[in-house]
Please model this.
Amino acid sequence: MILTRRFLPYFITQCLGALNDNVYKNMLLLLVTYSQLASLPIDVNLFVNLAAGLFILPFFLFSAHAGLIADNIDKAILIRRLKLLEVIIMCCGAAAIVSQSYLIMLVLLFLMGTQSAFFGPVKYSLLPKVLKDVELVRGNAWVEMGTFISILIGTIVAGLIVASDHANTLAAITVVFLATVGYISSRFIPSIPLRFEPKKLMFTPFSGSIASLRKARRTPSIWMAVLAISWFWFLGATYLTQFPNFAKLHLHAGATVVSLLLALFSIGIAAGSFLCDRMSFKQVELGLLPFGLLGLTIFGIDLYWAVPDSNSVDVYTASSFISDSQHYRLMFDLFMVGASGGLFIVPLYAFIQARTKEGECAQAIAANNIMNALFMVMSAIFAIIFLGPLGGSILHLFLVLALSNLVVGALLFIRLPELRLRLVTYLLARFIHPLSVAQGDTLPKHGGAVLIGLSSSAKDLLLIQSLSVRPICFILRQPLDTEFLAKLLRTSGNVLESASSQQGKADEGSQEYIEHIAKALANDDLVYLCINDHLDLSDKLEGLIGSVPRLSISLEPGGNKSVDKMAPSRRVGVVLTQRVNIPLEND
Model:
């Protein structure tokens, strides 16, 4: 996947875009702060705050419209146009850098933010179009890794440029070079034609943003994923913003240690992203979220206790900081906070991509970008209030963030019942009774379909659910028992619909059973029927599900004994075959 034309040019393009954004932004702030104050017509602090605000403002103004455009145009063409715009902006930026026109550079920073706001929705909505289902998590892992490593490299490169003897010339050449190479790589992204007639669009920045958020809120699971991603950006923005003062006030360290902290955090996110790919078993897996939140909490709390009492007279450099063993625990905690963040965020992006309807993925990502920007602004306001009027320290701020993850986790478990279900199915199918698919087809990605199997116990149904990214609607004539797993299924909302079968009311129960099936298929749900129920009512059901894709599914104790070293009694094999010759959506 990584070296294929459908992914590699896109990956290089998005990495170079993130790199150039951070080189230009950080280089501008460093030039203003340290090098050329005399040529600046306004106060330095005002300039820095304006720069931060102008870069994030376009995400509020243009994200909604960017999502609509990305859903109604060939995504490869849109990316090429945006990268060409970046080349033009950076050519103007190079001229402004050489002439030291800082106000013009500020305007160009707003335009770079605008370009990024339009690039964000197409960046993520392209992945489900070019990747197979089993590649979606890995693709998102690579994107998150590339983004945060690019942020790290961009920050370091900006510092090296400003510290050089020919800072302005080198900066101008660098930003134009990165933009040009990014445009060239975008030319190799394969075309992705639309499968539907494009809509007529109207630019309405404020009402469009509200409409985009309302559309995301119509699907509670998508909305909760958006809020969870935004919480991650709240955390990340707070950590990254506070690193300079944290190093200075609590670690007695200089600028090189700030870069070290940023490197640990960014590389941790990259490592967590790849760990997510390994732990997800090539499937979009919400069940990994609690592990990410748990790591953010545990290592965030330990970070508070890991800061040593500094008795050093000299300011730590990166090398002296690393050579002091009392800092190892702190560095490990910071790396693991980043890794936990990567484990937390990758499944959420993949979940949004997998669950949104055809032609609406970019709009969902746009709503996500709006909320991300809002939460990052809120993180700055919260830090200002906490460290100012409330009199807290940066260490206490980090502790509050870590403990807040427990609240966020509780809210996600309450408001997103599917998360509870996915956690249990993940633990059950990966550790307690690991599944091995012996043979069969892929479950349909979209549209109504019927699974027919022998299983009717809660544990077996949960194992079957673990095979599908989509919630399965289990429709049974006989109610489940009252054990914990059965209760979990019942509280999962649309995952279980149990038709009544009271003695003496068989006809009434059968009619209710058929109505449940009709309703679920009308909603394009993936339906599971017990084979005994299906056979009893085969005449009535044939007309209802005759044109719907049907698959047989069976669980076989023992799995593949020739390759599985685990005890056969724990391993479960899966056989999934089509019952009718109707093609499935595997791509």
Summary: The chain has 21 helices and seven strands. The beta strands are 435-440, 449-453, 472-476, 496-498, 526-530, 550-557, 572-578.
